[in-house]
Design brief:
Order of helices and strands: EHHEEEEEHEHEEEEEEHEEH
Helix content: 10-25%
Structural class: alpha+beta
CATH class of the largest domain: Alpha Beta
Shape: globular
Distance between the termini: 60 Å
Mean pLDDT: 93
Low-confidence stretches: none
Strand content: 25-35%
């Protein structure tokens, strides 16, 4: 692929320039090409962050990514609930749910395959058993289907908004009301594609309800119930009302808090989930206790 840099494109980062001309490829894929030396600028391997100059010639040699396969790995798992149809695991913060761009091992799926051997195949080879997901730096309870029939039933419950999901989160600032509901639609941020936003007129419907559990100096501890499962929903909703989740710098939380150690994750925990058991329809509630690192970090703040 051969490109000449127009004056209007001068000064753009090389990876941004390529993405604008090759939108069918993800930016991470293009950055992999650059790292592998497959993108030349005037015959010299380029750097993703380097600005391109007017008149420069950019040559890109595409390469298909290696196929991803979910393979078993001996990774410890904390099981909160299990029956013949499903398992509820306690996902730690920092663990990716399934393989994707840039992540090929160490995922929850790798651990599940080692523990259980075979899971539902409805979500595809890379996501066996996965009915719903949690962000990488969010911890807590997550349901996994062992067979296709259970997967269909659980997926229908999620789609019908019959699953009750409650989270614990610490947010910056004093939340004025004891309870509240946020109903802003959520869309992909057109400028920063790793973010979601509530600032566009379009978006997918979403609602989050919260209640105050504790008020601390500079922070508020909330229980949040979500009725929809949009990407980054709690994080973007709370940030949109001026209360970003602690540790979530993507949505406006400060990277450092004076007098306190770095958190190293989001203070967001999937605490409780209630669903109908696929085998007999009986309600089941699974609870994940607040992780030790969050409990200890919380103790460093005085009551307000």
């Amino acid at each position: 692929m051969h490109f000449s840099v127009d004056p209007a494109d001068a000064g753009k980062r090389l990876d941004h320039f390529l993405h604008e001309h090759l939108p069918e490829y993800s930016r991470s894929r293009l950055q992999d090409w650059i790292k592998a030396g497959r993108v030349l600028v005037d015959g010299v391997p380029g750097r993703a962050s380097s600005p391109v100059r007017a008149g420069a010639i950019v040559d890109a040699t595409p390469v298909d990514p290696p196929p991803l396969h979910a393979t078993p790995e001996a990774i410890p798992l904390a099981i909160l609930y299990e029956d013949d149809d499903l398992v509820a695991v306690d996902k730690p913060a920092g663990m990716v749910v399934h393989a994707g761009a840039g992540v090929h091992s160490g995922t929850l799926v790798n651990a599940l395959l080692h523990r259980f051997g075979q899971l539902s195949g409805l979500a595809g080879e890379l996501r066996p058993g996965i009915v719903h997901r949690l962000d990488r730096f969010t911890s807590g309870v997550l349901l996994v289907a062992k067979n296709d029939a259970a997967h269909r039933q659980l997926a229908a419950q999620f789609a019908g908004r019959k699953v009750q999901k409650f989270y614990l989160t610490l947010v910056h600032g004093r939340v004025a009301r004891e309870t509240g509901r946020i109903e802003s639609p959520i869309a992909r941020d057109p400028v920063k594609r790793t973010r979601m936003t509530t600032r566009l007129s379009r978006g997918r419907a979403a609602w989050s309800e919260y209640r105050v559990l504790r008020r601390l100096e500079g922070f508020t501890l909330l229980e949040v119930r979500i009725g929809t499962g949009r990407t980054h929903q709690i994080r973007v909703h709370l940030s949109s009302v001026g209360h970003p989740v602690a540790g979530d710098s993507l949505y406006g939380a400060p990277a450092k808090i004076t007098g306190h150690p770095p958190l190293g994750r989001y203070f967001l925990h999937a605490h409780r989930i209630t669903f109908a058991r696929p085998s007999d329809g009986e309600p089941v509630t699974v609870v994940s206790p607040l992780p030790e690192e969050l409990r200890v970090w919380l103790e460093g703040f005085r009551e307000a």
